[in-house]
Specification:
about 45% helix; 12 helices; about 325 residues; about 20% strand
Length: about 325
């Protein structure tokens, strides 16, 4: 974003207590569930808006969103070509007019009290980043009672699956860094700059978003590996911009972790084992990856991630 644009945006008055900012690319079906989950919020509909950025989708995302009958104000913006999350977030940020901006992903189903809890937190504290509970679920059906999973644990300062911050703070740091064109680390990078402003992390486990994570199938492996490679390239970019212990620990780009990676690459023994396991004929393309198969897919993703890191650095 143009730095001069920030001064203008900082002068625009708040129209809502909270803006929910969502970016999406070719996830029309689950996104529909997300938008509908915001219909029955305990925070009255006139007190919030939703700003959706369709980042170059080809599945009819924009038409679907604009066809919904919703009690709240929905703004749909569109990029004709996929520009990446950082650029899409900034497009959304330009349009947001909420005192607080709540960022969720396009596969996070909102608990009925999600927005009210974020608003209450920011009413009680000033310079904070509020991280809600990201509760991982396997289907887009909102559970009556959330059940904790190990995947829910995160040490991230700013995790855009369910995080809020006052709009003025995001504008003050200049929004998201659009050098991040691919998947990964753009939210962590924003977190570092918010931290430099003096913001502190605050967790509100009553602000629940249900993150839909279906069990991967064998047909998903090529996509998983491409995503891992993209994340490796952006990890290298993240390190180049912020070369410090915190970033090296979070990305795994430090001597201890790299030593483990180099050991697995000796003779490619781990990769060969995982490929042999996942390429066996009896494993169908639509077979869920569970147990050892899931472990092998994750190991291959890790190898591709660090291969990409080393190529980029």
């Amino acid at each position: 974003m143009d730095p001069n644009e920030f001064a203008e945006l900082l002068q625009t008055p708040d129209q809502y207590e909270v803006s929910v900012q969502i970016c999406s690319h070719n996830r029309k079906d689950v996104l529909k569930k997300v938008l509908e989950s915001l219909k029955d919020q305990t925070l009255p509909a006139e007190r919030f808006e939703v700003v959706l950025v369709d980042d170059g989708s080809t599945d009819g995302t924009q038409a679907m969103a604009e066809s919904l009958e919703l009690p709240y104000h929905l703004t749909v913006l569109r990029h004709e070509k996929n520009a990446g999350l950082a650029t899409a977030r900034n497009t959304g940020l330009r349009a947001c007019r909420g005192h607080v901006i709540l960022i969720i992903d396009d596969d996070v189903i909102a608990h009925p009290d999600l927005l009210r809890q974020h608003v209450l937190t920011h009413a009680s504290y000033d310079k904070i980043v509020c991280n809600g509970w990201v509760n991982h679920v396997s289907t887009p059906k909102r559970p009556e009672v959330p059940k904790f999973t190990m995947a829910d644990i995160s040490m991230s300062f700013f995790w855009t699956s369910n995080v809020s911050v006052k709009r003025k703070h995001l504008l003050e740091i200049g929004g998201f860094d659009e050098d991040f064109k691919e998947y990964g680390w753009e939210d962590q990078e924003v977190g570092l700059r918010l931290m430099a402003l003096g913001l502190k992390a605050h967790n509100n486990y009553k602000a629940i978003g249900f993150h839909v994570k279906r069990t991967p199938q064998r047909r998903d492996i090529p996509r998983m590996l491409r995503q891992a490679e993209a994340k490796g390239r952006t990890a290298a970019l993240y390190i180049k911009k912020h070369n410090r212990p915190r970033t090296r620990l979070s990305t795994g780009i430090h001597p201890a972790r790299l030593a483990v990676y180099h050991f697995t690459r000796l003779g490619d023994w781990l990769q060969k084992f995982c490929l042999h396991r996942l390429n066996r004929p009896q494993l169908a393309d639509d077979a869920p990856l569970t147990g050892l198969d899931n472990w092998c897919a994750r190991q291959l993703s890790t190898i591709h991630y660090f291969d990409s890191v080393e190529d980029s650095l």
